[in-house]
Amino acid sequence: MSDDAGKGGVRSVQLALDVLERVANVGEEVGVSELAVQLGTTKGSVFRHLKTLVERGYLSQNPQTSKYRLGIQAYVLGQVAANGIDLLSASADAIRDLRDELGLTVVLSVLQARRLIVVETLLGKSTLEIGVRIGTELQLHCNAQGKVALAFAKQLSMDQLPDKLPAITVNTVTDRADLVRQVSEARSQGWASAIEEETLGISAIAAPILGINEEFIGTVALVATVQDISRELNPEQVKALKKAALRASWNLGFKGDF
Predict the structure, then answer these.
(1) At 5, is the secondary structure helix, strand, or coil?
(2) Which Gene3D superfamilies does the UniProt record give (predicted)?
């Protein structure tokens, strides 16, 4: 990529963010011409960015007035960020201590609008870095976090999963009855595991983070190679994971145990 193309790409992103922020700050519907004047650019340039933002759900257009306002995706993203910040502050010490105690990668996720989204990853101490990118939306049937979410989140159910569960690896649970059994086990024991179900060679165990009235907030998970998290699970890993999840839960108002 040339310097000009790179700079152009950055300017394009900046203008898209300027458009989004300006619509948000206006607090009411706004038109293309008004935005172009406020941003000091052409109507055509603003319109192209508006079109993309509408297609992605960050803005919506009133068909009667042709003006724009914030879309549902902007609200969802904002709520995810707010919830993630609460979860991050409540779990910061717990997940740091968990990572330091076991030396494994710790991944924190939050539930928003039936979506389980990664909000923090603390890399382990191994020379091989294993992590999950912040902002990743986790599938529910093929990882430990998803099984925990299905077990503890009242707003989630097996009904929202496809009739035929896709096999991500040869170890992915694709039988619904088997998944129901694992979700039930997760609910009774307070944690779930997924051994090479989403990525070959990588395993995870996860526990729930609960709030006041036992509502499900998110999950904390240990993620590592199969050498560190194997099918013969280490009870000390499970114990440390649940302890960290409880610490975060208590900080969010949870009064019980799991």
Answers:
(1) helix
(2) 3.30.450.40, Winged helix-like DNA-binding domain superfamily/Winged helix DNA-binding domain
Under DSSP, the state recorded for 49 is H
Domain 3-70 matches domain 77-251 at the CATH topology level = no
The one-letter amino acid at 190: G
In degrees and rounded to multiples of 5, residue 228 shows phi and psi of: -95, -30
State the CATH class of domain 3-70. Answer: mainly alpha
Tell me: the pLDDT tens digits for 111-156?
A: 887 789 998 999 998 877 787 888 888 989 999 999 999 999 998 8
Q: Where are the domains of the chain?
A: 3-70, 77-251
Nearest to 166 by CA among 156, 158, 176, 157: 176
SS3 210: strand
Contact 59, 66 (CB under 8 A): no
CATH superfamily for 77-251 is GAF domain (3.30.450.40)
DSSP state letter for 139:
P
Claim: this prediction has a pTM higher than 0.85: no
- The tokens of 118 are what? 């990664």
Tens of pLDDT, residue by residue over 152-193, are 999 888 887 888 899 999 999 999 999 999 999 999 999 999
